[in-house]
Amino acid sequence: MRTRSFALLSVAALFLAAASASAQTTSATPIDDASRPAAAELAKLPWEWGPFFQGGQGVGDRSGYTLLSSGVRLGKVITDQYLGGIFRGQFEYAGEIMPYWQAFTPPPHEGYLTYTYNGTKYSVLEPYGGGTFTGVSITPIILRWDFKPHHRIAPWVQGAGGLIYTTHKFPPDILVPQGTPGGTSVWNFSPQGGIGLQYFISPRRSVMFSANAVHISSASLGDRNPGVNASVQFQIGYTFWTRK
């Protein structure tokens, strides 16, 4: 009897030890939020939102333009990871609202307007507007591909489209007799594309860095559409991640 009881106790002890070891192994299987916060957060298909500041310069004939804006971004990671290799990642949809938008352009000046008449090119010296332009902007369509994250870093690439409203016609154009810009528009569109990353400082907090190429055009809403053919703008923001 004692031998049988000892054997039963031994089996029970071995079973409990095995169960304890199995539980410890299972608890270590999920992604560790502390050591791999980027992967742990994106795996939950979270919402992300936060404030940002953006600034940059025009390119080419608009190199004298300085563009600044700030606002709030809201996004949602929609899919699990797909594709393979360096392209593996997740799709995210986002949008931005910028109640602060300003363009600093050269002051009013005279410049040459070139046009063609009956096959002959002519240049006429005309007065142009300039100065500071104030407005608001919204980017309701941001299509982002979040690449597979590594430890604290989640890189991404995106394409986006937005709308800008300014209190005066932008960009500055030839001044009409009343002294106001002539053929451009207070409404402009802002198709753009960029790259960036989220750097996680904790499981639900990250700092965002990005570089964007932004085109500004009125799509010929005015008589003329000189636009800002290209600008390079950099963005920095703080991101909150929520899982519901």
Describe it for me?
This protein is mainly β and 244 residues long. The protein has 2 domains: 1-30; 33-242, Porin (Beta Barrel), CATH 2.40.160.20. Helices cover 13% and strands 55% of the residues.
In short:
This protein has 244 residues and is mainly beta. It has 2 helices and 11 strands, in the order H-H-E-E-E-E-E-E-E-E-E-E-E.
Descriptive keywords:
244 residues; mainly beta; Porin; 2 domains; eight-stranded antiparallel barrel; 2 helices; 55% strand; elongated
Strand and helix map with partners:
Elements: H1 2-27, H2 37-42, E1 47-58, E2 66-77, E3 89-104, E4 109-117, E5 120-128, E6 132-147, E7 153-170, E8 185-189, E9 192-202, E10 205-216, E11 228-242
Antiparallel strand pairs: 1-2, 1-11, 2-3, 3-6, 4-5, 6-7, 7-8, 7-9, 9-10, 10-11
Overall CATH architecture of the largest domain: Beta Barrel
Q: What is the domain tally?
A: 2
Poorly predicted parts: 1-29
* Tally of individual helices: 2
Report the count of strand segments.
11
